[in-house]
Design goal:
The complex is a heterodimer of chains A (311) and B (472).
Chain A (H helix, E strand, L loop, with lengths): L7 H48 L2 E2 L7 E2 L3 H8 L2 H32 L6 H13 L2 H11 L6 H7 L16 H25 L4 H9 L4 H28 L4 H6 L11 H11 L3 H27 L5
Chain B lengths: L1 H21 L32 E7 L8 H15 L3 E7 L3 H10 L6 E4 L2 H9 L7 H6 L2 H4 L9 E2 L2 E2 L2 E6 L1 E6 H7 L7 H13 L3 E3 L9 H14 L1 H8 L8 H15 L7 H6 L2 H10 L2 E7 L24 E4 L11 E11 L6 H11 L2 H11 L18 H16 L2 E3 L1 H4 L2 H16 L4 H17 L10
Classes of the chains: A mainly alpha (311), B alpha/beta (472).
């Protein structure tokens, strides 16, 4: 007996039903696979995040019960706490430094190394190696190198080159910049590798066409390379801006925010309030403010994309 | 709708970052944070295996407190206790960054039965969070009152109830390079004025007066603030201010801050503020040992037995012929020996401990004069403020023995001062060592510094956050 297929709307619905069943089964399987990571995410990210929002409105020592104080922590943060202002301005300085210096260095090095075929890998590896070292090791190395009695400055002074045998980490005027220098030494090699990878995806024909049009190396960089790596560049600028508000490790290891608060950043302020002063509620408010600043960067990024920026 | 999607996305990212913001390790580099231990290493159960009929007591200890020698505390305390007890087994876990690990575990509803904190003000926070057990009945049962010196148990009382017992009785003294002093004909100072004059003379001779720095421990600043408060204003004034009966803005405290600031700005500490903030521990001890620096105000912990402690930088092994000695830190009156009481850690029993009786029995063993003598001799640990037996100091460096004897006499006579990390509430304590750098930098006057301290201290006093202080 011939098997007759249903036709019309009823037929479409009849054929779609098993597909929906298959789809929903596949969806269930997919969600089952995702479930462990979702649970983990909820436990270690969403849960503590919601808790941090709650605690930012409380007077909480970090142990025991929290007392609801409304907006008092934010009032203190924005209108009374001079340390917060100092730390915030230091984070801004940090962001400006890291948006300019390592990015410029990395773009320059990547631009120079991109066409190098022989021995290029050796240079790339050499510049990338600092990024592979643990922060504590890098900080300790540079603490010794910056020592005015045993470091590079002392060596230069022995050679008659004065002015560098100073305790840069111990001077209020230079401490923040000295820490930024150390962090940058480790960081820029990573940026260079990213830019280099992006540059290698630019079609060679574009460079050939530019040369035929009489473009110089600088023109090639400006009109071919930069537009070609723009998404990577802007993404890294965005991430650098966000990370600049989260900096903690180098500052903590090298100066703990000193001398006299000259290298204090929001991250060290959070730590001191939460763990030294037992003001975990207030520390949560600072943490949330840091997050809001990071969120602001992301909003800017999304808005630019929506306006047609290819980033 | 678009706006909603953006704001939802931003909120999620912000929340995720808030979680990072709460933790200190957020970083623009790939390296992991250096100080995040929360997982306990394997427990050490020496001497006897745990059996089901033995009550188990969990005990976390800081390896660095015993000169990095984990085996020492096991041999001196845990193994003898487990060997002699037929009913209790102590599970000892060496736990680096002990306080962070303990606090995190307690907040999460777990943690050890024996709770060790870095000092009475930390134990006080745990009492307020209802994490510790009141020990009065157990103290009476095990006669702790007879074991400790008179004022010691008062340090652990909150609202009249005993919650912690003090360990690591320490003080600050003035160490000096004896050989250098003899070579230059310098007399040890008897008063603060003599100390200032001597510092000027030492500097003129091209020697650094004090081998001080805070690069590896920023709260080092508080050693000096506390020292000058107790020596210039005097312990009675400090006591009155700690009780809220006197203001920190009174002139005697301002004089103390001014004198300390003068020492810093004259470059007496390590040659200048920049070096004070950057010289490592090895650098300053090396300078002290080889005679580049003449004196050092530091705690009794400096006289450790391990490599890297202050004494290891003196003598032929360190490549010099120098020797060190000590005197009490001079005060305004000649011959007045003030020893500031410092407590390096406290011991308590967790509210959640399954067998408080067993935990108390272990604490009784731990704080017994015999065990404390073993820790002192074998591990170089500072002893608890207990009544040590006459032979307890036999075999240790006689200079260390002299300090311990002098501390004991001072505590019995009530002529002691107060260390900031033991008797000040946490916010005021952090203020003392953080903000003093602004005075030294010239960003703040001594009076402004003390006004800030007074404001913060008053807040903490009103909130009842002042650590216990023994009656004077």
């Amino acid at each position: 007996m011939a098997h007759t297929q249903p036709t019309g709307v009823a037929g479409v619905q009849a054929r779609a039903a098993p597909r929906r069943r298959r789809f929903s089964q596949r969806a269930i399987v997919a969600w089952l696979f995702m479930l462990p990571i979702l649970v983990l995410f909820a436990l270690v990210v969403i849960g503590p995040s919601i808790a941090a929002v709650f605690y930012s409105f409380t007077d909480w020592s970090g142990i025991g019960k929290a007392e609801w104080v409304g907006l008092a922590n934010y009032q203190k943060l924005f209108f009374q706490d001079l340390s917060f202002r100092k730390a915030f301005s230091n984070n801004i300085i940090w962001m400006i430094i890291f948006l300019i210096i390592p990015v410029t260095l990395a773009l320059f090095a990547a631009g120079v190394l991109a066409p190098v075929r022989r021995g290029g890998m050796m240079f790339r590896a050499a510049l990338f190696i600092p990024y592979l070292l643990p922060t504590v090791i890098v900080a300790q190395i540079w603490r010794n190198l910056l020592s005015p009695t045993q470091g590079i400055g002392a060596l230069l002074a022995n050679w008659g080159i004065a002015g560098f045998d100073r305790a840069f980490l111990g001077l209020s005027q230079t401490a923040l910049y000295a820490i930024a220098f150390v962090n940058n030494w480790q960081w820029w090699g990573f940026l260079m590798v990213l830019f280099l990878a992006a540059m290698q995806n630019i079609p060679r024909e574009l460079y050939d066409a530019a040369r035929i049009d009489g473009a110089s190396r600088l023109d090639e960089f400006r009109y071919v390379t930069l537009p070609g790596i723009m998404p990577t560049l802007v993404f890294m600028l965005l991430m650098t801006a966000i990370w600049s508000f989260l900096i903690f490790d180098y500052v903590w290891i090298l100066t703990q925010g000193g001398p006299a608060g000259s290298s204090e950043v929001l991250g060290t302020l959070v730590y001191k309030n939460a763990f030294n002063r037992f003001e975990a509620g207030y520390a949560s408010a600072i943490g949330l403010t840091m997050s809001a600043l990071a969120g602001l960067m992301i909003v800017i990024f999304i808005m630019l994309r929506r306006r047609g920026w290819e980033i | 709708m678009k706006l909603f999607r953006i704001s939802t996305f931003v909120t999620l990212i912000a929340l995720a970052l808030a979680a990072c913001g709460g933790a200190p390790a957020a970083q623009p580099t790939a390296a992991p944070a250096a100080e995040q231990p929360t997982t306990a290493p394997a427990a050490v159960q020496p001497a006897a295996p745990a059996t089901s009929d033995k009550a188990v007591v969990t005990f976390w200890f800081e390896p660095s407190d015993v000169g990095g020698n984990t085996a020492c505390v096991i041999d001196a305390v845990i193994a003898p206790f487990n060997a002699q007890s037929t009913s209790i087994m102590v599970e000892a876990v060496p736990q680096p960054n002990l306080w962070d690990a303990t606090r995190t575990a307690l907040a999460g509803g777990s943690g050890p039965d024996i709770v060790v904190t870095p000092g009475p003000s930390f134990a006080f926070e745990l009492v307020q969070a209802d994490q510790l057990l009141a020990l009065d009945d157990l103290a009476q049962q095990f006669n702790w009152g007879d074991m400790f010196v008179p004022w010691a148990l008062n340090l652990g009382k909150v609202n009249g109830k005993l919650y912690s017992v003090p360990n690591e009785f320490e003080t600050l003294v003035l160490y000096y390079n004896k050989t250098l002093f003899e070579k230059n004909g310098w007399a040890v100072p008897q008063t603060m004025d003599e100390l200032m004059a001597l510092s000027a003379k030492i500097k003129e001779a091209g020697v650094i007066p004090f081998a001080h720095s805070n690069a590896e421990w920023r709260p080092t600043n508080e050693w000096f603030v506390g020292t000058f408060f107790n020596r210039i204003a005097g312990p009675a004034s400090v006591y009155a201010a700690l009780k809220g009966e006197k203001s920190w803005t009174d002139p005697e405290f301002a004089r103390a801050v001014d004198m300390l600031t003068r020492m810093q700005t004259e470059g007496y500490f390590m040659g200048g503020l920049d070096r004070y903030y950057t010289a490592t521990g090895d650098e300053r001890y090396a300078a002290f040992g080889n005679g580049a620096a003449a004196m050092n105000i530091e705690g009794t912990w400096a006289m450790g037995v391990e490599a890297g402690s202050m004494p290891s930088f003196f003598g032929q092994a360190a490549g010099n012929e120098n020797d060190w000695d000590w005197i009490p830190i001079p005060s305004t009156k000649a011959g007045e020996a003030i020893f500031d009481i410092g407590i390096g850690s406290t011991y308590s029993i967790a509210r959640t401990a399954k067998n408080p009786q067993a935990a108390a029995e272990f604490l009784t063993f731990f704080f017994s004069p015999a065990t404390q003598a073993r820790l002192l001799k074998d591990c170089g640990s500072a002893p608890a403020p207990v009544r040590l037996e006459a032979d307890a100091l036999d075999g240790i460096d006689p200079r260390k023995a002299q300090i311990l004897e002098a501390m004991g006499k001072s505590s019995d006579a009530g002529t002691y001062g107060y260390t900031t990390w033991t008797f000040w509430p946490p916010k005021s304590d952090v203020y003392i060592y953080e903000e003093i750098e602004k005075v030294w930098a010239g960003d703040m006057t001594a009076q402004q510094y003390l006004e800030g301290l007074q404001t913060l201290f008053t807040e903490e006093l009103k909130a009842g956050d002042i650590p216990p202080i023994p009656e004077r």
